[in-house]
Specification:
The protein is built from 14 helices and 24 strands. With about 525 residues, the protein is an alpha+beta fold. The termini are far apart.
Length: about 525
């Protein structure tokens, strides 16, 4: 045999051994990419959902391999803003560093499909109501038309809730009528008829409202964003629903490129028996924010009062507007221990949401909930609604800002809950977090609902009405603007007399009016309802 033939035989003989000893091939769609995409992306990126294109098949994903790798590496998608290892939440849509590296390697290697035998079972999606047939279905009174293009639309729809007497709610499930345009929804309650007045004053279905519902809610039932799953509260726990309440459904619509209509609905699931543990709420806020024009890192803080009793934190709802950049929330115990709650380093108003803890976080009596927030009011902020930038203070409009956190809690007894709802921040907190209000805790219908420790019968309601009457009297007469409130109230002092008249007060946004009422209430209430020594 020639020397060439001997060399050829040697090479062929060595080939299998070399192949057997080589490293495994790079990631493939079937084995590595499909599990990542189906777990984190497909719930929104499938036909009929809010995602602008499907990510179901190899063909869907492979032609966007570079885009998927880039947008996941930047963590713009999946849309989960809470930092890892700083609170553990339901519905986390966060990719691990290893998953991001796998997506990048797959795209770099040409997005190979791999062996179909390696594919996991395809995802299955429950059609219809995720929690089963609701006890009560509430639907928007009429369809709303979302324009083909332009800015996102924020609109509230008022839906009467037909109940006889007070009830306790285990869950509320939002069902988008048109997932192509529904970006997110928040479910407020209004038992005072204020939202109906705003609805009647607006010519179209519902009424326009950006930052909140435009009224002070009397409770809430939660919210919805793509990827969030409804879940019931623990057995025996419920949210209090006052008789005669309206559901105020605040919708955020994102135009799809063509005119669309939506008529979304909400399913209500009542507790099987009257809840013995009621949900309460707190608010942590700084309404004195004043962000100078051009400031690219305005920093501020806020904190709660000391908790009067032990509480279990079920969830949190951070809230800022378009200038917000970050919010860090934590609790400090009387012993000086820091308990992390939630940290958002890259705030995005369009992806704000609530964060429900997998396990309630226990905070002992005397703890304080704190937040640290930053804002960017510079021309470099692409979300800045003002060009050129202008000074910004607290308010509900697109060009205003907020520094606000709602906290959903339960306590060990209704007596303890009563201590919580008497805190200064509990009225707004209860409205935002779906917590019971002070007027409801002692009402006869609450006793009928079954809450443990509820007294029923005659209560402090008479004193509450006296406090409200005194507040209205002060507002009718007008009041001087204190130096510490000058920047906050300056835009509303139309005649520049350093006083706020009743007409000027009535023209203020609901959020500012609430802050003023609370400031007056804290002083009046101390005189009318003195605490026992």
């Amino acid at each position: 045999m020639s020397s060439l033939g001997i060399l050829l035989v040697a090479v062929l003989a060595a080939a299998p051994a070399a192949q057997a000893g080589s490293s495994s091939p790079g990631p493939t769609f079937a084995k590595d990419i499909a599990p990542i995409v189906w777990k984190n992306c497909t719930s929104c990126h499938r036909p009929g959902e809010v995602g602008p294109f499907p990510l179901l098949t190899y063909e869907d994903v492979s032609k966007r391999a570079d885009f998927v790798a880039e947008i996941s590496a930047s963590r713009r998608m999946p849309p989960w803003k809470a930092e890892p290892n700083y609170g553990k939440f339901h519905d986390e849509r966060r990719l691990t560093d290893a998953e991001i590296a796998t997506l990048q390697a797959w795209a770099k290697n040409g997005a190979p499909e791999g062996d179909a035998k390696d594919l996991p079972a395809p995802p299955k999606f429950v059609e219809g109501w995720q929690l089963g047939e609701p006890d009560l279905i509430l639907e928007m009174p009429e369809a709303f038309t979302v324009p083909a293009d332009g800015r996102d639309v924020y609109r509230c729809f008022v839906i009467p809730i037909p109940t006889i007497g007070a009830r306790t709610v285990a869950a509320a499930e939002f069902r988008p009528g048109n997932r192509r345009v529904v970006h997110h929804a928040i479910l407020y309650l209004d038992a005072n008829g204020e939202a109906r007045k705003k609805d009647a004053a607006d010519a179209g279905p519902g009424y326009a409202s950006f930052g909140g519902p435009g009224v002070l809610p009397t409770g809430g039932l939660g919210g919805w964003a793509p990827g969030a799953m409804p879940r019931k509260l623990p057995e025996g726990t419920g949210k209090f629903l006052r008789a005669g309440s309206d559901l105020v459904l605040q919708m955020h619509y994102h135009p799809s490129g063509k005119a669309e209509t939506d008529r979304s609905s909400v399913g209500i699931y009542f507790t099987k028996k009257p809840a013995t543990t009621l949900v309460g709420g707190l608010a942590v806020m700084n309404h004195r924010i004043y962000i100078p024009a051009g400031e690219n890192k305005y920093e501020t803080t806020a904190q709660s009062e000391k908790l009067p009793v032990d509480v279990n934190v079920l969830g949190l709802g951070p809230h800022m507007h378009l200038l917000g950049r970050s919010m860090k929330v934590f609790a400090e115990t009387p012993e000086g221990k820091t308990i992390p709650l939630v940290w958002i380093k890259d705030w995005d108003f369009n992806w704000q949401g609530s964060y429900a803890f997998v396990e309630p976080v226990r905070l002992p009596k005397g703890s304080v909930i704190k937040l640290e927030a930053t804002y960017d009011n510079s021309p470099d902020n692409p979300h800045n609604p003002s060009s050129p930038p202008k000074p910004v203070s607290w308010g509900e409009q697109t060009t205003d800002e907020m520094c606000l956190l709602s906290v959903q809690v339960t306590t060990d007894s209704t007596a303890d809950l009563r201590e919580v709802v008497l805190m200064r921040s509990a009225r707004l907190g209860g409205a935002l977090a779906g917590g019971v209000q002070s007027r409801d805790l002692d009402a006869g219908d609450l006793a009928a609902s079954g809450a443990k420790g509820a007294t029923g019968g005659k209560s402090a309601k008479g004193n509450d009405e006296l406090v409200d009457a005194l507040i209205d009297g002060i507002l009718d007469r007008g009041f001087d603007i204190q130096p510490k409130h000058k920047e906050l109230l300056k835009p509303f002092d139309k005649n520049e007399d350093q006083r706020v008249s009743r007409a000027e007060f009535d023209a203020m946004p609901a959020g500012v009016k609430f802050v003023i009422r609370q400031a007056i209430r804290s002083r009046v209430d101390a005189a009318v309802n003195p605490k026992k020594p």
